[in-house]
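Quick review question:
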């Protein structure tokens, strides 16, 4: 009988020794939680792991063991010293360990070796398995993938994800679209991996619950399922620190964030005739409030989206080369990805985004709003 993807993953982990763990750039709670949880769990069963995320982890997640996540793929690699013998042949070779150095002594058959004949090609990584978490495709991994294509070509890749757009890049793919989060999927993998003793220690359970809570927006999103609540209950029973997660992620805001959110709220414009509201963050707002793009995350979901009597909300943010638009659906049945597509963007029915270039002067904020008004008008006429 053929093994299920879950069983194949368990077998792959059991038969591996050095395991590389990766997640997507711009890591969210599910990415960080799943990376921490897998790294702790696999170490517990005696595996050597190396966890990498190309982008900085937000300090919001500092209650998780994020110090075990590296920003670059390094280590676990042989150092190779290569001598070109195509012109001068070698007769014999030996090495001596002296005064804290290893000296390689190569005797030429005839002629002489010179320093230019020595090079240091990168050795091979010793990973026998790569596990990619919460990532729809390999490009989203960033530099670890871009700079080491050989490694990805030669190594068994396990792909564990819940995104609809996942392109099944792994040799083994466990892509469960019904799961709220990658962390939710991991709970059953951990159960299958260690049948006798539970791998769900307090820190692992907390990391996993972080992913479920952030990907469901604390069980408020429509993607919240009975299964996700059951799994969350199981994690809380295993001492996951739900209060700490909520406090750190939803109830702790820096002053810079509060100031920036204040700007966003005071900039709200309504287009009630066209059934939407929008706001804008100017580059200067970041300077005045001493905030960064990170501080802007969350304002649309936690504040703007609570607007009533509209179809959707829009937040425009000034970036280096253009404007970034974030859209959230408010009324039932409104698909904001259709609006994002007007500007070459995309996303889901509930949440979508787009990016416009300053080179197109028709697409300043006014141009964008006009285009959306037209779209809303056409929708209303067709109803
Ligand atoms: Mn996720």
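Suggested answer, residue by residue:
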């Amino acid at each position: 009988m053929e093994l299920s993807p879950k069983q194949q993953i368990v077998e792959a982990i059991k038969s591996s020794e050095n395991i590389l763990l990766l997640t997507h750039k711009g890591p969210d709670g599910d990415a960080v939680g799943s990376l921490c949880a897998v790294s702790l769990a696999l170490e517990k069963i005696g595996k050597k792991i190396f966890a990498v995320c190309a982008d900085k982890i937000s300090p919001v997640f500092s209650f998780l063991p994020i110090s075990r996540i590296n920003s670059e793929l390094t280590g676990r690699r042989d150092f190779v010293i290569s001598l070109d013998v195509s012109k001068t042949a070698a007769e014999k070779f030996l090495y001596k360990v002296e005064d804290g150095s290893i000296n390689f002594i190569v005797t030429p058959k005839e002629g002489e070796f010179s320093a230019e004949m020595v090079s240091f090609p990168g050795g091979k990584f010793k990973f026998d398995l790569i596990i990619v978490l919460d990532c729809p495709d390999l490009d989203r991994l960033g530099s670890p993938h871009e700079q080491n294509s050989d490694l990805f070509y030669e190594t068994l890749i396990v792909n564990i994800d819940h995104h609809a757009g996942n392109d099944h890049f792994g040799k083994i793919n466990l892509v469960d679209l019904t799961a709220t989060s990658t962390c939710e999927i991991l709970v059953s993998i951990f159960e299958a991996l260690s049948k006798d003793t539970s791998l769900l220690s307090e820190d692992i359970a907390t990391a996993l619950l972080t992913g479920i809570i952030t990907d469901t927006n604390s069980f408020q999103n429509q993607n919240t399922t009975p299964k996700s609540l059951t799994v969350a209950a199981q994690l809380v029973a295993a001492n996951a620190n739900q209060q700490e997660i909520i406090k750190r992620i939803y109830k702790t805001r820096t002053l810079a964030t509060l100031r920036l959110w204040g700007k966003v709220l005071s900039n709200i414009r309504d287009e009630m005739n066209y059934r939407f509201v929008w706001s804008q963050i100017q580059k200067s707002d970041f300077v005045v409030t001493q905030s960064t793009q990170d501080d802007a995350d969350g304002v649309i979901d936690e504040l703007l989206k609570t607007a009533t009597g509209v179809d959707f909300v829009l937040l425009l943010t000034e970036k280096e080369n253009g404007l970034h638009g974030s859209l959230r659906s408010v009324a039932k049945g409104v698909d904001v990805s259709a609006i994002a597509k007007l500007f070459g963007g995309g996303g889901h029915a509930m949440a979508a985004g787009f990016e416009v270039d300053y080179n197109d002067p028709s697409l300043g904020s006014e141009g964008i709003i006009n285009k959306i008004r037209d779209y809303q008008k056409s929708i209303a006429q067709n109803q």
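Why it works: Residues 5-75+125-248 form a domain with the inorganic pyrophosphatase (n-terminal core) fold (CATH 3.90.1640.10). Residues 30, 134, 162, 181-182, 215 surround manganese (II) ion (CB under 6 Å).
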